[in-house]
Amino acid sequence: MKPAAFDYHRPATLAEAIDLMERFGDSAAAISGGQSLVPLMNLRLSPSDQLVDVSRLAELQQTRDLGDSVFLGAGLTHAMFEDGAAPDPANGLMRQAASHIAYRAVRCHGTIGGSVAMADPAADWPAVLLALDAAALVRGPMGERRIAMDALLTGTYTTSLETGEIITGFEVPKLPADARTSYVKFNRKVGAFASSLAVAVRQGEALRLVLAGAGPRATLLAATAAAFIAGAPKTSVRNTLAGEVALIVEADDPYACALHIATILRAIEEIS
Ligand SMILES: Cc1cc2nc3c(=O)[nH]c(=O)nc-3n(C[C@H](O)[C@H](O)[C@H](O)COP(=O)(O)OP(=O)(O)OC[C@H]3O[C@@H](n4cnc5c(N)ncnc54)[C@H](O)[C@@H]3O)c2cc1C
Predict the structure, then answer these.
(1) CB 3.0–4.6 Å: which of 16, 147, 203, 258 could bond 11 by disulfide?
(2) What are 189-246's pLDDT values in tens digits?
(3) CATH number of 7-53
(4) What is the 8-class DSSP label of residue 27?
(5) Does ligand 1 come within 6 angstroms of the Cβ of 72?
(6) Ligand 1 centre from 156 Cα, in Å?
(7) This model's pTM is above 0.90
(8) C-beta of 86 in contact with ligand 1 (< 6 A)
């Protein structure tokens, strides 16, 4: 199917892009790699008919060392992380995750910013960035905001971005060399979104455990992480996990619950 008619704008600067987003309001959509937006347009599921191309904005391609964290521009593609062309402050976790997103053609165009703004419940970047306790930097008509990932992801395909706002990048904390990470993705075929995705980041006695592909958004499993770190017996950790998963999985779906429990337990095993 072909999309409905739309206007295409290619601003030269971020300021110009924000002006366009403000001018067209709810009819405007930023387009980065187009890997999610264009299929939605073809299916006539996108209400936007004013596309503001942010894929060539220099500001969104930048990376900066901020001391304890690294700024990663929203326009960096999955392939740049996979190839090591973008910094990975998470000791290889970001590179590992990027290489499991879709297939190479999608990875060459799709961006970290587009993925997070899309907020697919089974997407890789929202889960990884939440596990890393990253924050998004956002610019819009009202100025700049810094939004923690947990506050940015509000539900299925929804975020707390306001009309006209563009994600410029992410502040990702640097992990120390002795931090342990795990990324466990189960999908039914190579290149598909996760049926279940577990991401774990452990720094000493601090553990961030994230489940995606279950429920409306990537979710921190705080009770399970606390039980594990407190040294609870394995059966007790598993029971806590089963309770948290049951709260997230919306339907009565024993297969999905068993799958999510398995991916999370494997991730815990890997950071133990
Ligand atoms: C066959 C296929 C398989 C896939 N498999 C996976 C997978 O396994 N895992 C996974 O995580 N993803 C997967 N994806 C999605 C892919 O990663 C997309 O690249 C990504 O979701 C969207 O990134 P994009 O840069 O293409 O964004 P676009 O398609 O350009 O935009 C997506 C949305 O984000 C908005 N947007 C884009 N950039 C910005 C910005 N800077 N600020 C604010 N809003 C913005 C757009 O307006 C739009 O609403 C798959 C896609 C395909 C086609």
Answers:
(1) 16
(2) 989 999 999 999 999 999 999 999 999 999 999 999 999 999 999 999 999 999 999 9
(3) 3.30.43.10
(4) G
(5) no
(6) 14
(7) yes
(8) no
